[in-house]
Amino acid sequence: MTDLSTPTGPIDLAPFIKAYDVRGLVGSQLTVGVVRALGAAFADEVGTPGGEIIVGHDMRDSSPGFAEAFSAGVRDRGVDVVAIGLCSTDETYYASGHLGLPAAMFTASHNPATYNGIKFSRAGALGISFDTGLRAIRDRATRFLAEGIVTAEELGGARELDVLADYAAYLRGLIDLSGIRPLRVVVDTGNGMGGLTVPAVLGGAAGLPELPIEVIPLYFELDGTFPNHEANPLDPANIVDLQRAVLEHGADLGLAFDGDADRCFVVDEKGQGVTPSAIAAIVALRAIERAKALDPDGEVVVLHNLITSRVVPETIVGAGAIPVRTQVGHSLIKDEMAATGAVFGGEHSAHYYFKEFWGADNGMLAAMYVLAELGQQGDPMSGISARFTPYALSGEINSTVTDIPGAYSRIVEEFVGMAEFDELDGLTVTGIVQRDAPFWWFNVRPSNTEPLLRLNVEAGSNDEMMRIRDFVLGLIRG
């Protein structure tokens, strides 16, 4: 293990402490000294001497050492560590919610092997964003790096805890899959943490009863170098193997998890990707049904971020619930889940949030909802998803833009009088259309980390979507 002493001198942490988490290059940005300072800073933000903080990590080569360094920083400040070891991100949320403790997870999610990072939670799996604690953590860590960590009179202790079996049992208790029709499912975990959690939750690895699900594994071996493909199912190139395997095995469904297994993507029996918006609508219906069964007269709220398909709020309203439109970003949505008491929240990025999971996101639980829907009816996945994909979506298109205000001005100038504008998150432009014309809307948002504008377009017809998409791209790119 590398020396855990904290370096001295000014270090700029701003480039890799993002809006919702820490994400940086191993060695040049994230070092054991930086990580130890962040551990001490996190302990000061959320802990009290004698209290506990959960620390978990993924399968990246640097993660165990960083988890050790971070734990040393926590203990420096007199706070105890609960080390849950190798785990998925949603396992840390389970531990945080179940035990009522703050947590830190070492992962860079879908980023390449040269990266690592930290996802923080307050007690009860509540998110921490830049404005709700991450800025303060950064500033404290910066001081510790410059001046050294002042150790507490009594250092914190440490204990180990394996939560995988309890996590799997908890999810099984939420969604009963024992009575569904037999399903054949190909699962691609991309050498990420789904290789640990899928056998425990959907198989018998955690000692739970077998389910009527035949899991055909792809890349279950935990390997932080990602030898087969990046663990980023948002990139179509990374689900090609899954699509091929679904067809080769005659599977009912394909599932792809990202590196830390908190996001889940779905491929139908024809090998076609199912949009995360369709999955959000499917899960929303089932979540609303569960909530109404428990409290028939209660108000049911469901969140959706502003770039999910129009079908999502339409589905929510049709089921007798209240849709609430949110900004993009997991910490922001966790805050909204808590503030509104929402039973479910869906994002375009395949993050799905559940009240029954402390308002946190859980890719495995979303997959179980989809398996329950598919397994309780005779229609194939393609038929189910078609009902929730009535409109044309562009997907997210990134453009390098150095003058973002200038691009916004060009867009507003062209569409003034033809559309309505709002700035909940970036700029959303909704067309004022004639009675028989197809609807359209688009959103442009700047990246938090790069000089990029992200464009999403939806319309009532594919021709209209392409027309708006191409016109707006011309404005963005000047």
List the helices and strands and how they pair.
Layout: E1 22-25, H1 32-46, E2 52-57, H2 63-76, E3 80-86, H3 89-99, E4 103-106, E5 115-122, E6 126-127, H4 134-147, E7 158-160, H5 164-174, E8 183-188, H6 194-201, E9 213-218, H7 240-249, E10 253-257, E11 264-267, E12 273-274, H8 276-294, E13 301-305, H9 311-318, E14 322-326, H10 330-340, E15 344-346, E16 352-354, H11 363-375, H12 381-387, E17 392-393, E18 397-400, H13 404-415, E19 419-422, E20 427-431, E21 440-446, E22 452-459, H14 462-476
Parallel strand pairs: 2-3, 2-4, 3-7, 8-9, 8-10, 13-14, 13-15
Antiparallel strand pairs: 1-5, 4-5, 5-6, 10-11, 11-12, 15-16, 17-22, 18-22, 19-20, 20-21, 21-22
Helix pairs in contact: 1-2, 1-4, 8-9, 8-11
